[in-house]
Design a protein that fits this description.
By secondary structure, the chain is an alpha+beta fold. 34% of the residues lie in helices and 17% in strands. The longest helix is centred in the C-terminal third of the chain and has 14 residues. The mean pLDDT is 95.
Amino acid sequence: MRQIPVTVNGTEHLIEAWPMERLLDLLRRNLGLTGTKEGCGEGECGACAILFNGQLVNSCLIPAAQSAGSTIVTIEGLEDSRLKQAFIDTGGSQCGFCTPGMILASHVLLESNENPSELEIREALAGNLCRCTGFTKIIEAVRKARL
């Protein structure tokens, strides 16, 4: 076991973990941040997406040791209430499983492009899978949030 210093959602933590444990497990088990979901465990679905040093990444692919000294934002720490509310208003969060990753991916898009086209929205969400909405309501949510 090793002590791993990380800043998560603005709070510094010293987490005890095995170096090759997944960051996803540390967030959920050690810190109780269950908004980050495990979908595929292979980095394909985006359910475990977080902001890692400002970059959108799949936390199931990050070894705990690699997170030492990093700054992490999970869905619980994202302060983009306009985007969260847009997902609620449009029904873009049906079962809710993919929602945290979708919101984080949408947030990253809207931070760099305040008025993305539908194609740009689709490209930004390409790393996230949703089996409930068919993406129509999710795209609608991102459009609503951009205005």
